[in-house]
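Troubleshooting log. The previous structure file for this entry was overwritten by mistake, so regenerating from the original sequence record. Sequence copied from the archived sheet and checked twice against the printout by T.R.
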Amino acid sequence: MKLAAIRDAAQTIAGRVVRTPTVAAGRLSALTGATVFLKLENLQHTGSFKVRGALVKLLSLDAAARRRGAIAMSAGNHAQGVAYHCRALGIPATIVMPKNTPFTKVERTAALGARIVLDGETLAEAGERAAILARDESLTFIHPYDDPMIIAGQGTVGIELLDDVPDLDALIVPIGGGGLIAGIATAAKALRPAIRVFGVQTALYPAMVEKLRGGNAAVRGGSTVAEGIAVKAPGEMTSRIIAALVEDIMLVSEAALERAVNLLVAEEKLVVEGAGAAPLAALLVDGARFAGQRIGLVVSGGNIDARLLASILMRGLARDGRVARLRIEITDVPGMLARICGAIAAEGGNIIEIYHQRLFQDVPVTRADVDVVIETRSAAHLAEIVARLAGAGFSVRQLGNTASDVA
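Regenerated output below.
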């Protein structure tokens, strides 16, 4: 892959995809100790960078191939990119998606006019079905990452990023099959040879790491916040480029991904999917490696399921002590609930829910448990409320975060 191919791709897609901004992230910079810039591919028409490579590939098809149609395998973002441009170009589109693909990505892809086939538990299994359909129906297979045109299209992200911020010290890019980082690394290293390019994968799917190590260790897999990079079979072409140009690949936990999604909403007001938050997760986990440097994070997409996002945000509030469930043991006599509510109100806490439990067998018949869900200003404020309740003579346990008595 050469820079010239990526420049040609940039000319091909100019005016057809969003030229996304690169923004300085002041709050994240203060938090991490690096000067952070975010390349916002979540602002693309379909919420992901995938529209770039898909368009380059589709525009290369001749008239006969366009009439027959195109087919792709995808967990969602590549699917939407292919379907979006197929509709604009008048090309029939078939998308094979794993059965566990989030509803929001299935629905959005269908809304773009594509025929949806749900098959397989993994992207690789979906790809097997796509290959069969491509053969039987004479469709052109649009690979999500292991194709030079796809890689060139994704590499346009790197050209734009360095046009916006030419003096970056390093880039952190999410890796699934490797198309995005292969293209970006090719462009970035050609334009700025001193720049370091880092990849990041979820620890549940370290497929590219294992491939580059030459090992045969099985990918654990399983449910992940970052389903967009949950790939068990990375590309052959992409892996060669990554081996040559990428400094290191970092692995991040589900907890780190969740925290990164939450921080991007809370601190930068950006809705980002787990894969798009992976570069920030890596920076947070290994901040010392990038301290004092100018770092570009590629926010690859924003297609996160609304229920998952709501859960992440609520769990974030719980981790920060801003929402907590307290279990309070009381003597089962009139007036106790009023005393509890009064103590919480006196410290400025807000009661969201309250449950009065009398029937549990581990509670003496003369006593009861009261579970109170409260909203606070901070973890310190929560501690003040717990102290007030303890001072009023109540035994209090915080549920969820700890099973031990806090007073």
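The chain has three domains: 3-48+148-315, 50-141, 323-399. Archived copy saved in two places this time.
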